[in-house]
Amino acid sequence: MVLDRRLLLRGAFQGSAVAMALPLLDCFLDGNGQAFADTGKRIPTRFGTYFWGCGLTKELFVPKTMGANYETTQQLGSLEPYKKKISVFSGLRAIVDDNPNFQHWTGLAAITTGISPTKSGEFDSQTIDQTIADTIGHGTRFKSIEATCAGNKNESYSSLGGANTNPPEVSPLGLYTRLFGPGFQDPSKGDWKPDPQVLVHQSMLSVVADDRKRLMYNLSASDKARMDQYFTSVRELEQSMEAALKRPDVIAKVEIPAAPGEMPVSKSVPELQKVVPLMARLIALALATNQTHVFNIALAEPGSTIFMPGDSKPFHQQTHEEPIDPVLGYQPISANFSTHSMKFFATLIKELEDIKEGDGTLLDHSLVLAYTDTSFAKLHALDGIPILLAGSANGRIKTGYHIAGEGSPVSRVGLTVQQAMGLPIDGWGKGSMATKKAFTEILA
Amino acid sequence: MQAKALLICLSVWALAVPASQPVLAASAGEEAGLRLLTESEYRNSIRDIFGADILVQGRFDPARRAGGLLAASSTVLSVTPAGLESFSKMADSIAAQVVDQKHREKLIGCAPKEANTADDTCAGAFLDRYGRLLFRRPLTTDELKSRVKLAGDLAKSGHDFYVGLSDGLATLLYSPDFLFRHEIAVPAAGGKAYTLDSYSRAARLSFMLWDTTPDADLLKAAESGRLNTAAGIAEQVDRLMSSPRLETGMRAFFADMLQLDTFGNTTKDSIIYPKYNAQIAAAAQEETLRTVMDLGLKSNDDIRNLMTTQKTYINRVLASIYDVPFDFHGEWMPHQFPEAAGRSGLVTQVSTLSMFSHPGRSSPTERGVAIMDIFLCEPTPLPPANVDFSIVNNTNGPLKTVRERLLAHATTPTCASCHNHSDPIGLTLEHFDSTGAHRLYENGALIDVSGTIQGKTFMGGQGLGRYLHDNPKFPACLARKLYSYGVGANSEDVNPSVYKTAYKAFVDGGYRLRTLLKAMVTSPNYFDAAPPSAADTKTAMNTAK
């Protein structure tokens, strides 16, 4: 008789009880608050992205002073309370090389892949969050979680490459259900136990996985890549099931709230003001309960069409059509939308900062990359691009600086971020954006 | 008889061959295409295999439109980790419903000897039967064997035959053999060229005409090899096309071609347009599909009349947008617009007008770009990156209407090349606001709805409808999209010579949809496959000709 992993798992579970394979973890922290007393493990470092469309208003966004203690500007005003934990990069460039400037796409793809995209709407490699998730995303229920605030299921900028994107949750209720609906058990509760269904699912998945060899046979290269992606998804699901058999480490004391109700979700700013805080809170709780270590949240699409009720022109339209006010020197209505985009980011930061973990906050143990698709949206400009980094990645990155990119490729930030997240790489990006120069001055 | 054969098989398996030998594809041919099921193909397949009362609840990875069709992404996309998570949950839920108390008697077709343990005979018969329906071909011995074993193991450990059976079924439901349509190429008679094998033909016909998985008749025709003959195809096409289910298939095609999914991302500013709501969005899609089905399938009328007809169907909420009295008998009623309403076919329906507008105002450019892309297969290139649009916006200046503002903007040569195409089309629709309601003034100025394209001058939506009706590019575009939809290609890569016989029949027969459809799917070219060596350029399978 051939021994079968499925039955072994099953047998172990049916036999002498759960506790054998799954010792309950006591979750008291050690004296210095950085590690669990019983396991010696450090508090995990989390990574996330926040995407907003249509860039910035340079005159109102870029701080006049450099380095630490930079002067807060109008568009960064909402981030003032967290200023010491946020670094601002200005003056970065996305370099297209031989490709066109795909409006509202090139900048986004350049920041997330370090590569000038060859097609609009597609990524020429997997995105940075997935590369990081390959390192830190396993051992949790979800390798990564994607969400978008304006209700459009196409608005995810996390990808394993190509045209496929990791589909986002599009409403607070959807995000809540995915994270805390069926299949979720609160790890801080005493009655946590592994769900026997997980073992069943593992044996089912292995039946499907056994077909891999046959299915990969005889395919063209492009279809082989697609079939391979299917089986990558199978492996990821297997890994997440394996993680589901272990009680997640409890680091923060948080209460999982009741499910939010159905609510209107759209690009209208007042509706976003209700939706974004709920989404941000759920993301923070997902991190705090170790359901995932990686998240991606988008405010709206690149070329953002968020709008103010009663005003017939949405953000994107305004950036192109609103005249530059000769006295102010910028487009006041468009600027207002950029300011809102930063306020929404501040909402996310607040939620991360509000959760205490060890001797710090969830934000201290995270690194959040906030990025956009262009700088001056009116001209789809690819120079002067801003990026924000929030959180110190468990002390791996110094925060609270304004760094002038001086025309550096955006990929330098991506490289810096990956090094801070502990990835063993010394270079990143392609073509003119290939770089080996991280912003070492902020790496701790 | 069948059960007996299965028993023999099972006893042979019991001798246990290690399962690690590579097993060849089920059909002895070359894989020529891999097409991810669309959401509606998945839903319809489940409904037709297990019954309409089996609920399918879950999320599908979004499709992406290429060459004007979402269908084209079926040959490009794969299954993401979150997508598989969702497919596996849906599979569990579907399988659990199939074996529950309510459905088991009807759907399982046999009963276990004992309900609290494995019964390989009953499980084998069940999984074999549904495996063939789900995979659209018979299961291989190994595929069946692994599922029967799983169902048996889990039935024993869970002390429940039905739980094991449900889990065995679920593995079929999220297998790539169900989620993807494998199109298998075999050498065509005569040597050099390749063509689809009979099971792939059955699927291509069924998904095209009914938007669902092949039924028992089609699978039988595939099994017997009858679908490898012209007569066999003609028989099946006649059967499929004379069924009322043809409407399901054509609704799916037109919903894709007319980009009705755009409603998923359409919001209107409730301060400016308080009437607009989700009910109107749903009704507008239904209005458009009813119009197309009525004219194209039921009346078998000249399909070009979709651009000019003043007949439509309305319900209560649409009556409020169209500002016509609604007769409260029944949910939908036919409606004929008077000439003075300015309406003309699909281009002046609420669907087209509201999908391609901003939340707070109409957009002649978006409308023009969409109409050229959807009806004429003329996609507009992206505008140059570095453009100053200020003049278009300044409503406080001397230029009151969007026409004046756009024209001023389009005097810039780089802008003009595209705007001269799209704007005249969109500007003729300016008598309809962002929700499709009629108006005569913008910012107090009377709206001019004249347009000139390629020397032809016309007026308003009715002039535009007539222009499109008479433009040979419209029926040509419809044929191009229909073919691309059927074979899963990007319409921009398709060489029209592949379906030229069908197109000729369409033109000669007075532009009837049924004529086009029948000629297309009965043409031997419809099942052409790329030779395996060229398989990498598969999105352009059609260019193999």
Write the layout of secondary structure elements.
The complex is a heterodimer of chains A (444) and B (545).
Chain A: H1 5-14, H2 18-21, E1 46-51, H3 58-61, E2 67-68, E3 86-93, H4 106-113, H5 128-136, E4 145-148, H6 172-180, H7 196-209, H8 212-216, H9 221-244, H10 269-288, E5 294-298, H11 315-321, H12 332-354, E6 356-357, E7 360-361, E8 366-371, E9 383-390, E10 401-404, H13 411-420
Parallel strand pairs in A: 1-5, 1-8, 3-10, 4-5
Antiparallel strand pairs in A: 2-10, 3-9, 6-7, 8-9
Chain B: H1 2-13, E1 30-36, H2 39-50, H3 81-99, H4 104-108, H5 120-135, H6 141-158, H7 161-173, H8 176-179, E2 180-187, E3 194-196, H9 198-210, H10 216-223, H11 230-242, H12 246-257, H13 278-298, E4 311-314, H14 316-322, E5 333-336, H15 350-355, H16 364-376, H17 390-393, H18 402-409, H19 413-427, E6 441-442, E7 445-446, E8 450-453, E9 456-459, H20 460-470, H21 473-487, H22 500-508, H23 513-522, E10 528-529
Antiparallel strand pairs in B: 1-2, 2-3, 3-10, 4-5, 6-7, 8-9
